[in-house]
């Protein structure tokens, strides 16, 4: 589902940046190093790819060049409610982990969207 920007607080960019900074620009789920705001791809590669020549370094370099969007750090709402920006509800996730989390919660997210748009829920009191 596309992001509904009007549901996020006006300070969302600042809040999201704080969460990512506190996570040291690593995914809090899988530990993947991610690009910092304003960091070029070559600066990111210099920061995360070990200078020693080994297979792991070559594999990482190939993955970064082939799929750089996998190294984008996002801020996820764990309860999928954009208005709830309490720190315990936010987690820094790489784009892969964020997508995985959202896919697992798709039915729940659709229900939340319907409720937000005014549909009543007969199962919650």
Distance between the termini: 26 Å
Secondary-structure-derived class: mainly alpha
Total DSSP E strands: 2
User: Helical percent range?
Assistant: 40-55%
Number of helices: 5
Biggest β-sheet description: 2 strands, antiparallel
Strand order, largest beta sheet: 1-2
Q: Low-confidence runs (pLDDT<50, min 5 residues)?
A: none
Rough shape? elongated
Work out the strand percent. Answer: 5-15%
Mean pLDDT: 85
Give the SSE string: HHHEEHH
Cα radius of gyration in angstroms: 17 Å
Organism: Nostoc punctiforme NIES-2108
Keywords: Endonuclease, Hydrolase, Nuclease
GO molecular function, one term: endonuclease activity
Protein name: HNH endonuclease
């Amino acid at each position: 589902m596309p992001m509904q920007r009007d549901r996020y607080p006006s300070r969302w960019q600042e809040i999201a940046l704080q969460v990512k900074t506190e996570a040291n620009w690593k995914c809090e789920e899988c530990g993947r190093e991610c690009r910092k705001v304003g960091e070029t791809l070559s600066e990111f590669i210099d920061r995360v790819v070990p200078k020693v020549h080994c297979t792991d370094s070559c594999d990482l370099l190939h993955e970064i060049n082939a799929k750089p969007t996998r190294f984008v750090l996002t801020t996820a709402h764990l309860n999928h409610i954009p208005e709830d920006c309490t720190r315990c509800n936010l987690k820094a996730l790489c784009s892969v982990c964020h997508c995985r989390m959202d896919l697992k919660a798709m039915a729940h997210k659709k229900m939340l969207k319907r409720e937000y748009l005014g549909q009543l829920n007969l199962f919650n009191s």
